[in-house]
Specification:
Layout lengths: L3 H4 E6 L2 E6 L4 H14 L1 H4 L3 E7 L5 H13 L3 E7 L2 H9 L27 E4 L8 E4 L2 E4 L8 E4 L3 E6 L3 E4 L9 E5 L4 E4 L2 E4 L10 E6 L2 E6 L6
Parallel strand pairs: 2-3, 3-4, 5-7, 6-8, 7-9, 8-10, 9-11, 10-12
Antiparallel strand pairs: 1-2, 11-14, 12-13, 14-15
Length: 228
C-alpha cells in the first residue's frame, strides 16, 4: 500500500480545504483519507472541504456514505470535483457543488532572488487564516498561529511563535539543512526539502520543538531558547 501522504494532497482555499486524491483504488484512497483525518483531528475538526476525486466514479449510495462518514468526524463535505460525468451528476443529486473557485492566494511574497541576502528573513506579525499562503526565498518568522488551510513556504527555515495546524514547507528548493521550529507543532503538516510528515495532535501540555532532516527522515528535538 502507498503512503497516505502521497495519496492525499491538502491545500488551503479561502473558505476551507481542497483535498486532492491520487491514483489508486478507491478502497486505498478512502483508507488514506480517513487515516489523515484520524491522526490530525484538530486540523480537520469543523473544516469545510472540497474533494477532488479525479476520474473516480461514484454513485449516490457511495458518495452519500462518504459524506456521512466525514460528517461524523466533524468534516463538512460541500463540493466534489471530478473528471467523471457520472460522479459529477451524483454530486449534483446530493446537493454538492461541482465547481470551485481556486482564488489567487491572499498573500504571496517572492522578491527577486538578487534582492535577497544570505540569512534574510520575512517577519509576519499575525495569525495566518485559512487560504493564506506566505512564500519567501529566505527564512520566515510567524508571530502568531498558522491555522488549518494556511500555508507557509520558505527556501530557508520557518519559525512559528504560536500553534501550527496548517502546512509548513521549509527548504522548498531542496535545502535539507532547513529547520522548522514552533511552540506547538503537534497538529501540523511539515515538509523539509522533499520529505514530508503529518504530525498527530498529542494530549497534555505542548512544548516548543525543532524539526530537522537527518538521514532522509524528519526528526524532532526540544527547542530551547538558548540554542544557537
Amino acid at each position: 500500500m502507498s503512503d497516505s501522504n502521497t495519496l492525499v494532497e491538502i491545500k488551503g482555499l479561502r473558505d476551507g480545504l481542497l483535498i486532492s486524491l491520487g491514483n489508486a483504488e478507491w478502497d486505498e484512497l478512502r483508507a488514506a483519507l480517513m487515516e489523515q483525518i484520524e491522526v490530525r483531528r484538530s486540523f480537520f475538526q469543523g473544516a469545510r472541504v472540497a474533494l477532488d476525486v479525479g476520474s473516480q466514479i461514484f454513485h449516490v449510495n457511495e458518495l452519500s456514505e462518504l459524506r456521512d462518514t466525514l460528517s461524523e468526524r466533524g468534516v463538512n463535505l460541500w463540493a466534489v470535483v471530478s473528471e467523471s460525468p457520472t460522479t459529477e451528476k451524483t454530486a449534483q443529486l446530493l446537493g454538492l457543488a461541482t465547481r470551485i473557485s481556486r482564488p489567487r492566494p491572499q498573500e504571496t511574497t517572492r522578491p527577486p532572488a538578487e534582492e535577497i541576502g544570505e540569512g534574510a528573513a520575512m517577519w509576519v506579525a499575525r495569525t495566518l487564516r485559512s487560504g493564506t499562503r506566505i512564500e519567501f526565498p529566505g527564512n520566515i518568522v510567524v508571530l502568531g498561529d498558522v491555522n488549518p488551510g494556511a500555508e507557509v513556504i520558505a527556501e530557508g527555515g520557518i519559525l512559528v511563535w504560536g500553534r501550527v495546524r496548517g502546512i509548513v514547507h521549509a527548504g522548498v528548493k531542496g535545502d535539507e539543512s532547513a529547520v522548522v521550529c514552533g511552540l506547538d507543532l503537534s497538529a501540523a503538516r511539515i515538509r523539509i526539502g522533499g520529505v514530508s510528515a503529518v504530525l498527530s495532535e498529542r494530549s497534555g501540555e505542548s512544548h516548543p520543538e525543532k524539526y530537522f532532516l537527518e538521514d532522509g527522515i524528519i526528526k524532532s528535538e526540544s527547542w530551547q531558547s538558548n540554542q544557537s
